[in-house]
Specification:
By secondary structure, this protein is an alpha/beta fold. The protein folds into 2 domains: 65 residues, Ubiquitin-like (UB roll) (Roll); 121 residues, 3-Layer(aba) Sandwich (Rossmann fold), CATH 3.40.50. The protein is 32% helix and 24% strand. The strands form 2 sheets. It has a 9-stranded mixed β-sheet with strand order 6-5-4-7-8-9-10-11-12, covered by helices on one side. The protein has a 3-stranded mixed β-sheet with strand order 1-3-2, with helices on one face. The radius of gyration is 33 Å and the shape is elongated. This is Cell division protein FtsQ. Part of a complex composed of FtsB, FtsL and FtsQ. InterPro entries: Cell_div_FtsQ/DivIB_C, FtsQ, FtsQ_C_sf, POTRA, POTRA_FtsQ_type. Keywords: Cell cycle, Cell division, Cell inner membrane, Cell membrane, Membrane, Transmembrane, Transmembrane helix.
């Protein structure tokens, strides 16, 4: 073999190539892990009303580990996602030393019973709010349907000057709503928006003028509705002594 110049030249080339590769790998490893390339700037973008600068600063100081090259983008995104009002965080590197973070906040639409909030996309999230929000009560996983129904009922009730304050969805998919005047309306499982519109029309034209406290209205009847008025007393039958 030692007399075979071609084989020796091939072996030398392989050794040289391996050495170059090892040097390049070592240089690349040093380059990406060297403290010479720290993250010096963090740019945070997004319309934020609930997320505070102090919260963002805490995440930046305690959760962002590594250099410009070694910083784990997924872990960084997850770190900002831990903040209660952050729905999503997009993280990008910008050469040579900047990290760009775009934050999308939750927009709270309603409360989910006594446990957390629901955003405009029908997603549950755990955060505190002092906003006067409607309250939703329904089966697990029904948040999107309930947000959609809440949005549908608002314009239907608006002509009567009413707003939904609480909304229930039963396991059998029957709807009930409590309005901001305290009246509960049974809407059932079919033609919910139509029944709500019919209630709004009768409320504005007839019900609101009644001299009694209205507790609830049942709109599930095919040809009418039933009104519960606890302080109403039926007049005596004809000929009956009072």
């Amino acid at each position: 073999m030692w007399d075979n110049h071609r084989a020796l030249r091939t072996l030398a080339n392989l050794l040289l190539g391996s050495s170059v590769m090892m040097v390049l790998y070592a240089a690349g490893f040093w380059l990406t892990h060297s403290p010479v390339f720290p993250v010096k700037k963090i740019q945070i973008q997004g319309e934020m009303k609930r997320v505070t600068p102090e919260q963002l600063r805490y995440i930046a100081e305690h959760e962002l580990l590594g250099t410009f090259f070694t910083l784990n983008i997924d872990k960084t995104r997850a770190a900002f996602g831990k903040l209660p009002w952050v729905r999503e965080a997009q993280v990008r590197r910008q050469w040579p030393d900047t990290l760009q973070i775009e934050v999308e906040e939750h927009v709270a639409i309603a409360r989910w019973g006594e446990n957390g909030l629901v955003n405009s996309r029908g997603e549950w999230f755990d955060a505190a709010s002092d906003q006067p929000l409607p309250v939703l009560y329904g089966p697990a996983g029904a948040q999107k349907d309930m947000v959609a129904m809440l949005a549908a009922l608002k314009p239907v009730l608006q002509p009567a000057g009413l707003k939904p304050q609480r909304l229930w969805l039963s396991p059998r998919r029957a709807w009930r709503v409590e309005l901001d005047n305290g009246v509960q309306v049974e809407l059932g499982r079919g033609d919910v928006e139509k029944r709500a519109a019919l209630f709004a029309a009768h409320w504005k034209g007839t019900l609101a003028a009644l001299p009694y406290h209205i507790e609830s209205v049942d709109m599930r009847y095919p040809n009418g509705f039933a009104v519960r008025m606890p302080d109403y007393k039926a007049p005596p039958a004809h000929g009956q002594k009072q």
